[in-house]
Structure formats: C-alpha cells, structure tokens
Amino acid sequence: MGTLLQQIANGLIFGGLIAMVALGYTMVYGIIQLINFAHGEIFMTGAFGGLAVYSWVLPPAAQQIWYVALPAMLVGGAIVSVVVALLMERFAYRPLRNAPRLAPLITALGVSVFLQELVRIFFPGASSAVPFPNAFITAPLHIGSITIPASGLLMLIVSVVLSIVLETYVNGSRMGRAMRATAQDPDTARLMGINPDRVIVLTFAIGAVLAGVGGVLYGTYIHNVDPYIGFQNGLFAFAAAVLGGIGSIRGAVIGAFVIGLIKNLADIYLPGGTAYDYVWIFILLIAVLVFRPQGLFGEAERVRA
Amino acid sequence: MSTPVLQARDVSMVFGGLTALKNVSLNLDEGKIVGLIGPNGAGKTTFFNCLTGLYTPTTGQVLLKGAVLPGDPAEVTAAGVARTFQNIRLFPSMTVLENVLLGRHVRMRQGPLASLFHGPSFRRGEAAARDRARELLAFVGLGKVEDELSRNLPYGDQRRLEIARALATDPAVLLLDEPTAGMNPQETEAARQLIFRIRDLGISVVVIEHDTKFIFTLCDQVSVLVQGELLVEGTPDVVRGDPRVVEAYLGKPPEEVEAELQAVQEGETP
Amino acid sequence: MKAMARPLIIVGSIVVIIGALLPWATFVLNDGPYPDKATLEFFDAPFGLSSFRLYLEILGLAGLVFCFVPLRDKIRVLKAVGWGALGVALINTLFIIGDGGGFGAVTVADGVTAFGGIAAVIGAAVLLYGAFQLPAEPKVVINPKLPFWAEWLILLVAFVALLLLITETLTAGGHSGVSDPYIGPLFLSYLSAAGALLGVLWAVGVTKWISDMSERHRIFSIVVLVACAVAVPFTSLGNDYWMTITANIGVYAATAIGLNIVVGLAGLLDLGYVAFMGIGAFVAANLSGAVAAEFGIRLPFLLAAIVAGIVAGLFGAIVGSPTLRVRGDYLAIVTLAFGEIFVRVSQNNIGGLTGGSNAIPNIPDLSLFGTGFNDSLTIGGVQLPSGVLYYFLIVVLVALVMFVFGNLKNSRIGRAWIAIREDEDVARAMGVKTGKLKILAFMTGATLAGLAGAVFAHKLATASYDSFQFNQSVTLLAAVILGGMGTIPGAVLGAALLFVLPEELRQFSDYRLLFFGLALVVIMRFRPQGLIADRHRRAELADQDVTGESLDDTVIKEPVAVAGAKEAGA
Prior knowledge:
The complex is a heterotrimer. Chain A is built from 12 helices and 4 strands, in the order αααααβββααααβααα. In chain A, 73% of the residues lie in helices and 3% in strands.
C-alpha cells in the first residue's frame, strides 16, 4: 500500500511536469494545427536558461537563498524559452504557413535536432548530464508513509495553478477570445480585426513560458539536465496532449496526469518494470492515435477538408 | 420502361442535427442527361457525395443497374460511377497523361508483383492503358498537351482533363459537378458539345449547374433541389414553366421560399 | 539595372582572377601536425596556380568568356559560375579566418597584407549579382538526332566522366582517411568547382540531353552505371578506407531509397524508419550463427537476408496499418513512437534477441568460394583492397533497391501512390484502394530497409540497437529530403552527401547533427523539392527562385558550399 501511494504521488508530480509541456503542444496545435515537434526543446532550453542564470548571473550569496535564486531562475528560464520559441516561430514556421502539411513537421524536426545539438555543443559541459542546483527547500515532506521532495510538490502546485490561470485567461480575456476565434477560422478572425500573427506569437510565447518554468522546476526536482530531456519529456507531453484530445487545455492537463500515473505505476506493476515504462506509454500513444484520435476526453475531431 | 441505370431512392443525409438532404429520389435512364439545379446550399454536392459513396446516406439507397452501390468511393468507381469536382481537383504535379492513367487504375489489373517485374503482360497492359488515355485526351481535345503538368493547364482545359480522367474509369454514369463554372460562353458551348458527345458514347450523365439556361438546353430531365428537398422534376419545359421553380430559384428571398415550401409540403403530403 | 549586368559580370570576374593571384593569408598556415601536407601553402604566396586558386582563375575566366560569347540562357550559365566562385572563395576565406587566427589573417597583420580572399569573395558576389541582372530566358533544350551507337558512346563517356569526377571529388587533397586539417576546405573547394561545372552543363542543356538519352537507352545505362560502380575499387578509391566509406554510403543509400518510397512517393512521413533496418539487422544476426545469437542456427546469407526482409516487411505492415485510420502528422507520430519502442525494447534485449547494450557481436564473415568478404582480393593481377566483396554485395543491394523503386514508380501502383500523396480523397474517388496501397508502401519500404539491415549487420559484423536510434531516422530523412523526394539520384546524392561530408569534414564532425537539423529547416524553406527535383515536382522550380533574399541567408555558411552543386540539379 505504501508503495502504491508513493508511486501515485510520484506520478502526480511527474504529471504536473508533463502538463506544463503538454499545454504548449495543445495550444499551438489548436491555433495552427502544427505539431510543434520542437516544443520539447523549448522546455529544455528553459532548463538550461535557468541553470545559466544560477551559474553566471546570481552572486554566490544569492544562490543560497531559495526565494531569491528560484524566482530569478524561473524568470530567466522563461525568458530564454520565449526568445527561442519566438525565433522559431518567426524564422522556421511562419514562412511555411501555407506550405503542404509535411513541410512544417519536417521543419519542426529539424529545429528540434538543431536546438539539441546547439545546447550540447555550446553549453559548457552539456555533452553529458549537467548537475542542476536544488534551488528550493531541500528537506522532503513526509506524509504518512510517503516521502515527497519539496521541489516536487512545488512543481505540482505551480503546474495546477498555471493551468487554471491559463484556462481562465483563454476563456475569459479578450485576447483569449481572439485565440479561440483564430483557432476556429483564421480568415474570419482576420476579417473581424484580429491579427492572426499576433495571436500565434502570443500562443507560442505562453506555451514557452509554461515550458520554461517547467524546465527550471524539472531541473530543481531531478537535479541534473541534459540536452535530450526535451525530446523525451516532449514525447510524453505530446502523448498527454493527444490523450486528452489535442487542442483542449483541460484535456492536456488530465492527459498529463494519466501519463504520469501510468509511467510510475508501470514501474512497479507492469512486466519489465522501469525498463519498459516508456514502451507502455508509447503503446498507449499509438493506441489512442489509432482508435481514438480525438482523445479520451475530447470531442469528435472537426472535419477538415 | 427498363430499369434506370442509376437510381436514388429516398436518400436522406443528416449531419449532426442538420438535415442536408431529405428523401431525395432520382432516376437516370440509360443514355440520358439529367440536370440537378438549385440555389446555393440546396444540397446538390451532398447528394453527389451520396451517389459516389463519399457519404453513406443516413437513410435511403443508391442503386446502379438495380444493384445497391457499395459504401466506398473506390468501389463505387469500380462499379461504374465516375465524377468530377466542383473545385477542380486534379493531381497537380502529375502530367496530363498521368492524370488520365490514374483514372485507368481501376480498370487495370497489374498487382504489386507485376508492377515490380514489368513482365510482358504488364507492358501490354500499360501500353493499352496509355493508348486508351491518349484516345480520351484526344476525345476531350487535349491531345497535344499530354506531357504538361496538369497544374499548368488553363482553367477550361483543367475541367476537360477532369472529365477525361473520369471517363478513363469506363463509367456507366458520369457525374459532373458544375462543369462550366467560371467559363466564358464559348467554353460553355464547347462543354455542352462535349457532354452531348459523352452521352452519344452511351454514358448517362448527371450534371449539377447554376446556369439554368445551360441546363435547360442540355438535359433530358431536370430535378430542382431546394433546401435539401426535391422541389420539382421533369423535362426542361415542365420545370421551366413551374412557378415554384421560378420563385424558389429566381424570385424570392430564402425565408419566403422556405415558408412557401412548407405550405406546399403540407398541402401535398397527407 | 539590366544594363549593368554585363559590366558587373566583367568587373566581378576580373576581381575574382586578381583575388586568386593575390596572397590569401598573412602567415603560413602549416603549423598543423602535417606541415608537409600543407597543400594550401599558396595561401601566403601570390601568383599560385594550383588547387582552389586554379579553380577561381578558371571560374573568373569563364565568367569573362561567357559574358562575351553569344550563348543561350546566359543567366543560368553565369549564375552557376558565380555560385561556384563564391563557394570556393568563401570556403577558403572562412577557413583561413577560422583556422588561421581571425580576421587579421585575411587582411593586415604584422605588416603583411593579404587581401586575396576578400577580393575573391567580393568579386564573386559582384559576378553573381551581375548574373542575376541578366534577362531570364527559357530553358535550353538540345536534342540532336544521332545514330544509336553515337548515343551509346556519349552515354559511356558521360558516365565514365561522372565516375572520374566523383572519385576526384572524394579524393580531392589526396588522402585516405588521414586527418589532414586541410582536407575540409580542399574537398569543399573541389565540390564547389565541380558543382559550377555541372551547373554550366545543366544550363546549356547537356545534363538534360544526357539524362533523356539514358532514359531512351535505359538498359544500356543501367549496365554502364553498374559497370562504373564495379570499377570504383580499381580507381583511386580502391583502398580500405574508401571501401568502407562507399559501402556505408551504399547501405544508407539503399535504405534512403526505401524510405523514399514511403515519404517521397506515397507522401507518408515515417519517423521511425530506421527501426526496420534494425529489425533486418537483428534477424540476420540471429540467423548468422553468431555466438551471442538466440538461435544456434546458421542460414546461408541469402536466405537470412530474405527472412530479414520478410520479417521487416511484416512489421512494416503492422506499423503501417494505422494509416487506415490516421493521416499526416498523426501517422508520423505513430511511426516515431514505434521507432522509440523498438529502441527501448532492443536496448532491453527483449527475448534475448538483440543482445541489449552488449549488441550481437562477432557475426561471422561472409565468404564466397572460400574468400572471406573482408579479405583482400586479386583480380587479373590487380590487388583489390579488403572489404571489396562487401562493396560488391552492396552494389548489388543498391541496384536491387533501385530496380524495385524505379519499376514500382513507373507502374500502376506507383502512380496510385503519387496520387495518394497529391490528393488522397480524389485518389479514392478515382477508384484507388488507398488503405491497401498505403500499407503496401510501408511494407515495401520496410522490406528494403530489412534487406539493407541484413547486409549492414554482416558488414559491421555486429548488430547493436545503438545504430538504429532516432537520429539515424532523422539523418535518413534528411538524406531523402536534401537529395530530392521521389527520385533515386536524389536519395543516392543525399545519402552520399550526408555520409561523406562528415568524413571529409572531420574537424566539424561534432557539428554533424547540428548541420542536418539546420539543413532540414533551410531546405524546407528554400528548396522543398531537394537538390534533384522529381520530374513531377520540377515545374515548381521554374517560377520559384531558390536563392531568395531571406533574412536567414546570413546565418548559413554550409549551404553556400552546396550551392554550386545545387545548380547541378537536373
């Protein structure tokens, strides 16, 4: 029982992480029907951005005070992610807005590999895993028989809070309305005075903020980062977005928690244990894509000509 | 009278809560041209999609020579119903000849192995298909441009190429979706002549068109579709003279037409 | 501006020639580990007439001559010359800056001046700019009536010339795997110059004429091509090093052609394709009698390869079956997920079939009439390098795969695939059973990859999951896209470039994937049809200028080198 509870706790924490990445996938897909394959790399650059702030910007004294260090890293990571995402949108995706559908996907793949390699080659020490400071309270929490690292709890809370804020923003604000309008019909939205480019840029930026924050928190939680964390967690996040019905914000969050739970439960309860948890998630992803492409909780896919 | 080549029996199509077609029937006799007219959004193209297996009718049946058509576009084509599209849909980066050869696909029998080894029978079949394709291109008047990419053809030629591609499937019935849209009077006249010549080959034709004048001078029978329902059918003279058609099609704003239609419906159906 | 075209070209050409004659570096660039191999010695001495300076002088002269000689389609000819000159000049200037100590190396340092590089770059840029100002002309078509034997002779000469050009390009700088620091720029200079030559031939219609001829004499061309491929070990490439490299290129070219069926013809993006190669490799390894193999049986290679192909093909059908339900990018993700599952599963040594992280090593060498495939061989008194039999085996593999691709493409099936790629709904409406055909595409591609994998495992004598990771799929995809989707020469060229460049540019080998990623982005943006466009897609080029004035242009160095070769795309 203790193990089960522990795994559920771990799963929820991991789900919280995945949710922050999955939201970026789902929003970009919702607006321009692009699987932004390189979104995982935005997450990764965010983590490295946070690390860079910690190592080279913060004075040693500030590094020790978590309520100074962590916010600085979060802001730094988010800024790096946003810059990367906007450059990506402007130079790689925007010119292809009207190209055949394979073209942006191949481009996304190229961007993804490019960013991975860029970080691996040019970030000092990044050719293997780089230690990431635990810039938060180090003492774990003990609840009954289970142990939760403080940084994990923080990740979960931040993720849930940000998801709720995002959902409220998209449903409630003027810009959110513009986003939904653009998602449904960019041409009509343009006629209504909405600038689709602005909306798309904003979507990328919001997704990047979430991913960047997620990246820094991930580093704090796991204690090391490497250039490939984006690829792997990006795939999980994509699986989550698909599971929840890509394009739907709430779906992505639910999907992320499902993925998190499955991964951590598979470690204990499914044949093969930790070595095969990825395999189960990918099998789930394929099954969902094949049998229920609109996602477990989504509505039927809109018919597109 | 013999059985019609193509017969639609009480075809209805419902999308979600929206009824796009309601109990539409149509009989197409062999060697005839039937026109389908109606205002925008009357369900003409939806009806076409039901005839070609792209949509499965919610209720009702489509029969070809007395047999129910399968629910798959590829099989419908194989059975002998070919079509063109309202907004021309050629394979843009294939050549003119290849577009027509693709139409031959369904009449060719070479499987993967034959295609792999290019044996003598493969080459015979391929040569025959090319001959037939060239014949059809000559028939529609595109004999000289077979190696052009289809997307580089002028608009009117693209329409004719689409017809040639459809004819390549050896259809018993050809469905033409707005074959003269965007054409000038000369081209429209050429299209009319082409459709007559297709009819003379023994192929029955259904034409959707906005241009009522074109339809009335082309067709043996005309059906008028309004708001997803069959309003009138008959010979061009009958249809042309029918006051409901004039009203529905030319005269009144849609709301009034709808109200009147309902009145007519209630009067007619017990 | 049109009136300025000719003066610009003349000035540009003259500056290029003068630049080539000036000193290029302010100090001697031979402080590397191979001072005697410092073939760029002319960097610091003026009036050199060798290597890249010779190319520049020739290109400059060509610019002058073509400017005055009456010539059809002058714009394309001079663009090719301009791109070539710019490529050579830029590569060497950048190399001196990068390797020779900064900007001072190409300007003034220690009282010495060296403006050759900068002058050549400026001259070439002016020449190119002038060429762009020339009036556009229709593409030249030459089609003289010749007796068939004359055409055969021309084809023979053309193919032999091509073979020589390729061997010369590969061995430019005369090395065989030694890490000479100058290899990179020498190779790229040669590549640019050769690209300019091919570009000029293309512009005057020669390449089209020859390719039309080879189309007419298809069988003859194939025989000559195979003969040329067989002749490679007898040329300057006939050493162990190049046998290994060319064999690797061959395996990946074969795989890339298989992928080209799926992506290029049927338009289905497969991001886990290399897994099929892996399946083939593991099947063959397990049937090879290797000690670590799960089954203690040893099948003859041919049989093992066939089984490998069949098993891979079955997996292809399974992975492809979601195409019945999902389309486009969703399908791409399904294949990606499959690829990841394959890597994980084989990393964990599932069922003992893959050896996990130990791989399946020591796959026995193949042998033919008692000669091991890794042994060297003497034919007619000529000592051939070791591994030559593998090379021949791979030539057979590539020929087989080309045969499959070419025949399928020009058949009812191939047309249907292209139709599916172009407009799936209409293809269905025209009677194409799209589901079956898409699965067939996956199966065919997977079978070919499985065969290639079987050869690959034997060639390497080992099968490890590490060779079949996602980045290999990306590399193969990049090869197909770079070379040109839907064409055989495209896939071969792409595979060759992607696997030769890292060899030639060892000092940059760490940047390999960085460059591939960038290449995917840049190609999709500026030349989505690849270097060698499909006949079907070529018309798109006519109205679309490749060398647009984009913002991204400034960040790219590498494609400039390829730009010369790009013009050869015919």
